[in-house]
Please model this.
Amino acid sequence: MHDVSPKDAEAGSFRDQFEAAGLQPTFNNKIDQIVLSTGNTAQVLARILRWLSRELGLSAVLLFAWDDKLRRLEAVAQQGALRGPLRKISALLEARVADWPKRMRAIERGGLETLLLPPTKGPAKRSLASALLPLCRDDKLVGVLALQKGPQGSLPPRLDMLHAATCPLVLLLENKRYSEKMDSLAQAANVDGLTGLFNHRFFQEVLGNEILRAQRADSPVSLLLIDIDHFKQYNDSYGHPKGDIALAAIGAILKEDTRSYDTAARYGGEEFAVVLPYSSQQQATAVAERIRRDVAKYSFPGLISGSRASLTVSIGIATYPTNAKTKTDLFDRVDQALYLAKSEGRNRVCSSLVVSRKVIRFAFCPPAFTSSYYRDILAGVRDVIGEFGNIDLLVAAPEAESDSEGFARICRDLVKQKVDAVGLCSKSLAVSKVIARFNRAGIPVFLFNFTQRALPGKVAGYIGYNQRSAGEEMGRYVVRILRRQGNIVLLKGLAEESTHQRVLGLLGYLKKFPGIKLIAAEEANWLRGMARAVSSELIHRHGRGIDAIVALNDEMALGATEAVAQAGKLGEIFVVGLDGTEDALASIRAGKLTATLNTNPREMGRILVRSVLRGLIKHEARRRAIYSPINIVDLENVNYA
Model:
């Protein structure tokens, strides 16, 4: 007998103590029944141990699996409470691992080699008889079955029946190990290696399943789409290795800030997605805000060791069934919401605006359509209407921007039609009376591209840009291209506030550079044809004395360009406009117009309609003023405008 303690005299020889009682076939049949009862390996192991405990009268049965790589035993199934120091039992097992294959060969020759442990003292100071049966296959240890009887009891004489359980237990342990390995490999195939989050493929699968579950359970599921703000700039400034560290850090924040049953995934590049089951839009907003705050306050690696940098994220939210009824629509809605968060300044959370099929009657009223600038704004308005599909758009404008009375008549008619909201832009200060009329009718007014913001009456929102800053930016560009030396002429618009503010900004900046001289300033009333005629006259009058023509809008700049081309001076006289219209950008690409100050008119139209939807559908608190970013566009960066 191997490894039998002198204190275990009462246990005696395993072979002598446990003799077959003619019950082997029944035992085999029962094991087979249990194995075939379910395909769940863990359930089969638990049922076998429960039956062994009952059949053999044991106080505890514990099954260990042997991890050959880590050289240790791990408990995988248990019936009853194994008394005594388990760590000592495990250590005793592991100390004899190398010798067990030899013992198993003895078993194959008909012997039954089992390790009998010295009796241990239980809580009542009574001995606990224990035995350990190694489970091997091809001379390799697979697991160990630990048995315990007590107190004051010996192991039962029918223990040799365990021969019938040895083979299925070995196979079950191997199957469990194989399944875990397959699960691990499958999990690895679903995980993004850099962030540790789930990958795009797995995210798509989970989102589809969660929407199906939500449909059956009549419960909500929300989706977050997260984008790192200006991440390309971070990579360019600090290097891609630091960018990878930042991505991993944001992945860790997402794990920390989401629940165990949420699914956080790296959607691609610097975009992440989170599926939030059983979450309303309000609950999802709380999670999104927590993520946004935690990212904003996190210290990311900077340029040199020890330095730190900041990053922010923009987050879009969409919820089933509030915003969409299908997976495809839900993702479209969350993508729109993310775009909204990015376009409105970044580092913010925005939820989908599609929450109602009620038709909204929205009136768009520019001062006129003589400028392509307002056509571009209208294109942005229609972009958003095309996304949501529940807005009835009314467009009305006078023939000329100077027709303030015609503008007032149009607005009075809109009040009679009882539109739901109106977007206004007027060059007349008398627009305050129009706003008061809409206020009395209870129609919310949204101003766009408006200079005079301190108006009487209630204004729901203002979308535009700083007119004086626009003039300063034009001056900055002119100084740069003329290398601080040259003559310019100025084309002004109508005699109203926006013209005044742009001129103040431009001339205020040029005063710093005495080498830049303003030799003429003419009005062209925002019109291309008039600007062409005025520019031709100026070129004729001043001959080679003009180095640049600065026009306060793109229509006048395009007219000036035509005059410069007719005079054969393209490339000699620079022409700079202001607006960023599609026509102006096309002229820059064609090598005609030198540059324009891009005020993003199309995006202004998109923001205008989204502001209306926020107020009328979601009843959200809106920012009083939303300012469009401005930047000079010339041949170098026109393809990125």
Notes: The chain has 20 helices and 24 strands. The CA atoms of residues 451 and 498 lie 6 Å apart.
